[in-house]
Write a structure and sequence with these properties.
Helix content: 40-55%
Radius of gyration: 14 Å
Distance between the termini: 50 Å
Number of helices: 3
Number of strands: 0
Amino acid sequence: MHIFTPIDVAQRAGNKYLGVLVAAKFARYINDFPRDRSLEEKKLTTRSLESLTGGDLSYRLVRRRRQET
């Protein structure tokens, strides 16, 4: 099992908090796809952290719009 340190995640995402948020969002995204659960080897969060630290996952930040009242 590979251990992801905060330094590994921060190198790819800018900071460790943003890296964890990106990896969690990607894990939820790949959870929506149908798959054979009997062949599942790794957890989705592990797969998403591997994609992030390996450079396979790219993302962009989108600014939140202000709500007009």
